[in-house]
Amino acid sequence: MITNLIYFKAFVIGVCIGSFLNVIIYRFPYNLSIIKPRSFCPSCNAQLTWRENIPLMSWFIQGGKCKTCKTTISFRYPLIEFLTGFLFIIFLNSSPSLYASSPNLFFNTLLSWFFVSLLVCISFIDIDNLWIPQGLVNFGFIAGFLGLFFSNIFSNEFNDFIFLFKGLGASLISFFIFEIFRRFAKYVFKRDAIGKGDSKLVAMLALWLGPIGILFAVGFSYVFAAIYCFVGLSMNFLRYKQAIPFAPFISLGGLTVWFLGNEFIISKILHI
Fold this sequence. Notes:
With about 270 residues, the protein is mostly helical. Helices cover about 65% and strands about 0% of the residues. Residues about 95-100 have low confidence and may be disordered.
């Protein structure tokens, strides 16, 4: 009973955070403030009342339409809220990094939820604009560095900043390797087959996941992308040579590694 209550609370928090993520996803590409003004209808700019702004529920209560102009509101708004709530349950008390597993469960959870929220924002912005916002990636670098720092303090493994150098080293090496691969792909296909932002996103994830984790994350991302392209071409909702956002697949790969954890990857997959 207590466990179910904890899961319910995690879901409710995630749904509320997901509502705010919708604001970031919509406003960030247009350099609009994510604080002011209050939430408004994208069609008629009418500000929403608190009844129209209840996470997950308002969309269904209003029948998926703006109360003022009756314009259809995208189903993606409640979808992102539900997805965030679901992911908050999945990543409850998950390990914050591949270098140190903090015994502080509250810290682990906050860091995991931030990681989820950041990747949800980046993924959906890339879906909408085929563009990865550098500001969010930079924010991820800062948060990853601080998370790595404090997780080692909480686990009493604070030792001459070695873990920070490992994280930064993994980030730099990942960036250069992925950037070389991106440039090679551009040379072969005579166009940008992989976006510049993808290299920076991989570098940011490397700081969070470590050298082993980022290898698996990138590997998983290409598997997920290949499956999506195969299904898309087979069902004709993708065209040959059509540009697709890659950040969602990189993010899904990163979340998969985060969920599996360091111990599982090393012991069960690498058998070390």
